Amino acid sequence: MPEKLHPNVEKVAAVLAEHGLTGEIVVFSEATPTAATAAAQLGCEVGAIANSLVFDADGEPLLVLTSGAHRVDTALIAETIGAAAVRRATPEFVRAATGQAIGGVAPVGHPAPVRTLVDTWLSRHEVVWAAAGHPHTVFPASYEELIRITGGTPVEVER
Questions:
Q1: Model confidence over 59-76: pLDDT tens digits?
Q2: E strand or H helix at 153, and its extent?
Q3: Which residue from 52, 54, 73, 122 puts its CA 20 to 30 A from 151's CA?
Q4: How many Å apart are CA 27 and CA 17, to the nearest integer?
Q5: For residue 99, is it left (φ>0), alpha (ψ between -120 and 50) or beta?
Q6: How many CB atoms lie under 10 A from the CB of residue 41?
Q7: 51: β partners
Q8: How far is 100 from 36, CA to CA, in rounded Å?
Q9: d(CA 6, CA 9)
Q10: Where does the pLDDT of residue 1 fall: very low under 50, low under 70, confident under 90, or very high at 90 and above?
Q11: In angstroms, what CA-CA distances link 44 with 23, 34, 115, 116, 129?
Q12: Residues 143/123, Cβ–Cβ less than 8 Å
């Protein structure tokens, strides 16, 4: 890891350490904007990438950690949480809710807690990889650790 990390990555690293996660944050030389590019860099299945997708659920932020092998069914998510509408958030909404930019949103390290749903499909992988607060960074965790550190709810994200 470089000597000086982006402040968002430092914040994420501190939260991970507080929760006892011991996996090292991986810093890529280039951004990994898709699950496929991250999986290729890591040498893992695309399904082991935990995409952090922020949605606008009736005006409130909703973070969905979904397997890179899945698409989020927003109608299913709205039914699941009892929202009238769940739609993809704007970049400004994402930054306001998480303090991080699209492409590097971590499941933790936000200014305030964000309601989080975790794709049950991720449980099929011993190690999953999530963004660490910047588009060039990821960290390893188990499915159970992701639920624990986010206070997330396990859900099906597609029909």
A1: 999 999 999 999 999 999
A2: strand 153-155
A3: 73
A4: 17
A5: left
A6: 15
A7: 66
A8: 21
A9: 5
A10: very low
A11: 16, 13, 28, 24, 9
A12: yes
The bridge status of strand 60-67 relative to strand 26-27 is unpaired
Whole-Å CA distances, 85 to 69, 136, 152: 24, 32, 20
CA 156/CA 134 separation, integer angstroms: 26
Determine the Cα–Cα distance for residues 56 and 145; give it in Å rounded to an integer.
25
> Which residue stretches of the chain are H helix?
7-18, 35-42, 74-81, 91-98, 143-150
- Residue 84 has which token pair? 């009238």
* CA–CA distance, 17 with 37 (Å, rounded to integer): 27
CB of 64 closer than 8 Å to CB of 48: no
Q: Tens digit of pLDDT for each residue in 2-58?
A: 458 899 999 999 999 999 999 999 999 988 878 999 999 999 999 999 999 999 999
Residue at token pair 């280039």: 30
End-to-end CA distance of the chain: 39
Average pLDDT, whole number, for the chain?
A: 95
